[in-house]
Amino acid sequence: MYFPSKHDVGLGIIIWGIILFGTVPAVIKTGRIELVIMILVVIFIAWVWFGTGYEIADNQLKISCGPFKLTVPLSEITEIRRTRSPLSSPACSLDRMEIRYGKSKRVMISPGDQENFIKTIVKGFPQISLDEGLRKYTD
């Protein structure tokens, strides 16, 4: 099952505002090389913004963020908790979940449908520890 990332309006305004603020002068005042570079940057950021999502299949969580991919075996997930950490992660929202897996690995994601995301993971792996805010989805 595929879960696209939630997109924060505020975060989108900041990201796309910075791009627009940087792109307009590049289009007006620069040469071809700078313009091509700026277009490539915009395409890359759009790929990340619109290409971030999470798939649960074959007992794995497959995380996509533009060209970046990560696969987490569901059997290695030990804990999922809510977080609003602004640290870099494959998430387009600050309404995030921190997934701890393996010995000391972690990744933050922001599925748009958190309730079904949690239900899907816990259905096959009920031993995963959930914080109180996420536990309500399993009742």
Describe the overall structure.
The protein is built from 4 helices and 8 strands. It has one domain: Roll (PH-domain like), CATH 2.30.29. The protein is α+β, with helices and mostly antiparallel strands. Strand 3 and strand 4 form a beta hairpin. The model has no long low-confidence stretch (mean pLDDT 91). The chain is elongated. The strands form 2 sheets. Strands 1-2-3-4 form a 4-stranded antiparallel β-sheet. The chain has a 4-stranded mixed β-sheet with strand order 7-6-5-8.
Task: Summarize this structure briefly.
The chain is α+β, with helices and mostly antiparallel strands and 139 residues long.
Q: How many structurally independent domains?
A: 1
Strand order of the largest sheet: 1-2-3-4
What is the level-2 CATH architecture name?
Roll
Could you tell me the CATH topology label: PH-domain like
How many helix segments? 4
Mean pLDDT: 91
Shape, please? Answer: elongated
Q: Say which CATH homologous superfamily is assigned.
A: Pleckstrin-homology domain (PH domain)/Phosphotyrosine-binding domain (PTB)
Strand portion: 25-35%
* End-to-end separation: 20 Å
What are its keywords?
139 residues, alpha+beta, PH-domain like, 4-stranded antiparallel beta sheet, 4 helices, 8 strands, elongated
